[in-house]
Amino acid sequence: MSQPPDPDVSRIGHDPDAFEAFYRAHVEAIQRFVARRVEDPYLAADLTAEVFLAAIDSARTYRASRGQPIGWLYGVARNVMAAERRRSARALRAGNRVAGRALVDGDDLVRLEERIDAEARTRALYRAMDELSEAERAVLELVALDGLAVQEAAKALGIRPVTARVRLHRARQTLKERLSPATAEQLTILSEASS
């Protein structure tokens, strides 16, 4: 999948034009990433915004030698999602509900609901992936679902490419053994698309 060239990522933290170009180039990919992981359109909108705010805050850490900007951004998004899972778990344990969602206009809500509906089968696959180790799941997500090459996924996760390939192979084998035929077929399609 070809994307427009990225601006110098280190500039997005202080250059509004660079940030706008970066945001426009990657917002759909990040919305898909988030929609595969949450069902609530308000939360999806909030998390997408948080990913880009975190990208602004950490733009100075981006190194072109470590991979493409989208791989780095997926790493930022994974951190935001992990922080959200921790926050959510704390809130549930404490019995607190987060109040006051950011306002989303009707058109945004419709688009987010459509995106969430479009990712329903993928969420079913995610439920099946809960049996994988976190390490295997992380590589599988970045390669099969987010479209990164194994080497880019390895860089985003801070592991060696050979380690990423082994984890990916184990994850695919485990899922093929445990999934229903229809979901296994979806995994096969995703695997072929990422090869």
From TrEMBL:
Q: Which family does it belong to?
A: Belongs to the sigma-70 factor family. ECF subfamily.
Q: What name has this protein been given in UniProt?
A: Sigma-70 family RNA polymerase sigma factor
Q: Which residues form the RNA polymerase sigma-70 region domain?
A: 22-90
Q: Which UniProt keywords apply?
A: DNA-binding, Sigma factor, Transcription, Transcription regulation
The UniProt record lists the RNA polymerase sigma factor 70 region 4 type domain at 123-175
Note one Pfam family from the annotation: Sigma70_r2
PANTHER family per the record? RNA POLYMERASE ECF-TYPE SIGMA FACTO, RNA POLYMERASE SIGMA FACTOR HI_1459-RELATED
| UniProt keyword Transcription regulation present | yes
Tell me yes or no: is Transmembrane among this UniProt entry's keywords. no
Q: Which InterPro entries match?
A: RNA_pol_sigma-70-like, RNA_pol_sigma-70_dom, RNA_pol_sigma70_r2, RNA_pol_sigma70_r4_t2, RNA_pol_sigma_r2, RNA_pol_sigma_r3/r4-like, WH-like_DNA-bd_sf
Known NCBIfam families for this protein?
sigma70-ECF
